[in-house]
Amino acid sequence: QEQLVESGGGLVQAGGSLRLSCAASYRTFRSHNMGWFRQAPGKEREFVAAISWSGGSMYYSDSVKGRFTISKENAKNTMYLQMNSLKPEDTAVYYCVADPWAASAWSGASPKYVFDYWGQGTQVTVSS
Description:
The protein has one helix at residues 26-31; strands at residues 5-7, 10-13, 18-23, 33-39, 46-51, 58-60, 68-73, 78-83, 92-99, 117-118, 122-127. It is mainly beta.
């Protein structure tokens, strides 16, 4: 069973920055598209960003475009989400996700779609 291990969440003031990390196995990292979803209390999960398995294509939700950057580092089998200009509405639990489904389609995923692998989640809290 694949384990995605996240780190990097925390408490930050509005306008600040955080970087999330997600470590995966060698096989998953090179065969699955990867990305991030988030879920705030009482809300459905929300697509944040995705990156193709090759690292050549990145996709973002409109709410984070221009502020967040998704990337991969092959030498460490690790994916990152650099979050800048954070806002209180970015507060949520952030989940790392891996799936063979085309990364370009993730933003339109049904809430019922079951992605292959999920991380345990990391809390991001942005204070105003």
